[in-house]
């Protein structure tokens, strides 16, 4: 199967009317344990004139071995980047959709100098549902784009940066609870992860409100 490289067609069109494009993409939505995270990447006209980092793709299309180096090059390419997360406790308390919005707001806040509410800023959000605006408040100019992480280079950059950040966090948790094999499955529903839950129960890093026993095995 031929993998189409992301382009800057959408970003360059938006930059004709706006000074900044913030791209957002989430990772960890379907995991049983660990945070849900949202990556944010900012482009301006100068960034959009630069060559897209070689090999940049949606994080799901990049091997785990190659992601860290690619994330570094993606972060160097964009004007600014950040990752925001919502904890398993916050996911249990408010549900996954609002937790995604909270993580996105934290990512945007982490960008620093760029004012996300200014008229010169537009936000690209991967998917077809705006989960950000209800948590951010009025004034955010959000454009949802299905498969933005596949087609838009800025969203692909946000995807890879967020994926590496969350994977690193889950790997760091492995030593605390090695029975769940998080260094390998990153909190997703592998067969070994589910078997460990049946044997040891849930840890404080699991999403306790989820029907974990019935979760499908993803790999």
UniProtKB/TrEMBL annotation:
Q: What is its main location?
A: cytoplasm
Q: Respond yes or no to whether keyword Manganese is given for this record.
A: yes
CDD domains, A to Z: RNase_HII_bacteria_HII_like
Cross-referenced InterPro entries: RNase_HII (IPR022898), RNase_HII/HIII (IPR001352), RNase_HII/HIII_dom (IPR024567), RNaseH-like_sf (IPR012337), RNaseH_sf (IPR036397)
GO MF annotations for this entry? RNA-DNA hybrid ribonuclease activity
Q: Which reaction does it catalyse?
A: Endonucleolytic cleavage to 5'-phosphomonoester
Any idea which positions bind a divalent metal cation?
A: 25-26, 126
Subcellular location as annotated: Cytoplasm
**Which Pfam families does the protein's record reference?**
RNase_HII
Domain RNase H type-2, by residue range, is: 19-219
Q: Which keywords accompany this UniProt record?
A: Cytoplasm, Endonuclease, Hydrolase, Manganese, Metal-binding, Nuclease
**Signal sequence residues:** none
* Cofactors that this protein relies on: Mn(2+); Mg(2+)
Q: How is the cofactor bound?
A: Manganese or magnesium. Binds 1 divalent metal ion per monomer in the absence of substrate. May bind a second metal ion after substrate binding.
Q: What is this protein called?
A: Ribonuclease
From which organism does this entry originate? Microbacterium paludicola
Record lineage: Bacteria, Bacillati, Actinomycetota, Actinomycetes, Micrococcales
């Amino acid at each position: 199967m031929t993998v189409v490289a992301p382009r800057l067609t959408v970003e360059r069109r938006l930059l004709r009317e706006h000074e900044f494009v913030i791209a957002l993409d989430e990772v960890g939505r379907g995991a049983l344990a660990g945070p849900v995270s949202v990556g944010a990447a900012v482009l301006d006209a100068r960034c959009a004139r630069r060559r897209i980092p070689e090999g940049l793709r949606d994080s799901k299309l990049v091997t785990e071995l190659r992601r860290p180096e690619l994330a570094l090059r993606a972060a160097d390419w964009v004007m600014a980047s950040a990752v925001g997360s919502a904890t398993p406790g916050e996911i249990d308390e408010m549900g996954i959709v609002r937790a995604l919005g909270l993580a996105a707001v934290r990512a945007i806040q982490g960008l620093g100098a760029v004012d996300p509410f200014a008229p010169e800023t537009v936000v690209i959000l991967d998917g077809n549902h705006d989960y950000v605006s209800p948590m951010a408040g009025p004034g955010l100019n959000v454009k949802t784009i299905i498969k933005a992480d596949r087609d838009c280079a800025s969203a692909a950059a946000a995807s890879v940066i967020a994926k590496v950040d969350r994977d690193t966090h889950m790997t760091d948790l492995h030593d605390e609870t090695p029975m769940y094999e998080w260094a390998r499955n990153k909190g997703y529903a592998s067969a070994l992860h589910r078997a460990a839950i049946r044997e040891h129960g849930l840890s404080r890093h699991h999403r306790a409100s989820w029907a974990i026993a019935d979760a499908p095995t993803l790999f």
